[in-house]
Amino acid sequence: MNTNVIFTYLPEYTEAFVLTIRIAWLGIAIAFGVGIISAFVLYFKIPTLSAIVKIYIELFRNTPLLVQLFFIYFGLPRIGINISAETCGIFGLGLLGGAYMAESIRSGLDTVSESQIKSASALGMTRLQIFRFVIFPQAVSVSIPALLANVIFLLKETSVFSAISLMDLMFTAKDLIGLYYNTVECLLLLVVFYCLMLLPVSIIGGYVEKKVRFGMFGV
Amino acid sequence: MGFEVLLKGNNFLRLLLGLGVSLRISVISVLISILAGIFLGILMSTDKPVIKLFSKIYLEVVRIMPQMVLLFIVFFGATRILGINISAELSAIIVFSFWGTAEMADLVRGALQSIPITQYESSKALGLNQTQTFVYIIIPQIVRRLIPLSINLITRMIKTTSLVMMIGIVEVLKVGQQIIEANRKVSPNAAFGVFATVFLLYFLACWPISLLSKKLEKKWEI
Fold first, then answer.
1. Domain B4-219 belongs to what architecture?
2. Cβ B192–A76 below 8 Å, yes or no?
3. A20 shares contact with chain B (CB less than 8 Å)
4. Which residue has the higher pLDDT, A65 or B9?
């Protein structure tokens, strides 16, 4: 183990770390957006749209991100759709995540029983009020653990971006190993940076999960 | 559109054989994970502090380390640190089993802990001994909870095996790339057709399994 080597590599890893985080959070933000919209489409059973959403969810949940990225990055330009590697990464992650988020949110919405909704409307609440005061608070507390697990899953999935030549952590590690053969140091840095990225999320996630568990009434 | 490439020679067969490589790795890893996971899960549901600490660290490592990083550590690191040469396929199996065992153990532990204590007490009150309690009361309930979840684990395993191309195993994606490269001149649009096919092949491999898992989950809902 050579500590000097570690310090020389630090700037490159930091740069890769920043890139990875940027793509990851943009992708996750899109995933939440897509997921929420898809979940609503399914929950309110909007015709035709909900069939499309169903197909989308099944397609993206049952294929690996690597294959999706290859298709978007190498396949789509052949029929005239050109996208940069970074955009491809962000949208790939967003679409994959959206399918997972949609399932988690929908299962949260589904836990609110029919009788509660009926009682609320018997009390004279409007549809919006029912959603705001009855469905939403319960659904959130039920879905949060699954949503957090999805966030961790998506952060981990960013490691495949190196395959479409984005200079992320994985790419940097592979590149440096190939150039200088300092395998041990490179792998150590790789692990450290992934811990930096995921440990905080995992710890905060555990804390949040404990907090919202008290909100699980009637489940 | 580039689909015609697949009809030339035995290109499509080669793709399917490539998918076979991924499926072989995932089936072996799944079998190891399920067996080791059941064993470890039972161990973890005991209250020994040493086991608790060990399993917490193990689960957290698996939870936050991308499988790709683990693959790199085993494939490149093991040679460098331990001086042993592990083939790419073996290192893939090691990593996926390491990951799957943790997931499976966590599922088993969750299922064991979800059985309320009253079940044990009532069967005792009915005069069943410990073996009978496990065979007739506990195991049937656990199996119902576990089977859908472990089937789900299989689809995740299959999807994750797509990563093995990054350590140089020739599987479906790599074969796809080879076909595209070989036909660059004759059909420049091959990338679209080939990758769309790979996408569909993965979907066809995973979708029936996840449908089955969903169906069983609904059927056995408690």
1. Orthogonal Bundle (1.10)
2. yes
3. no
4. A65
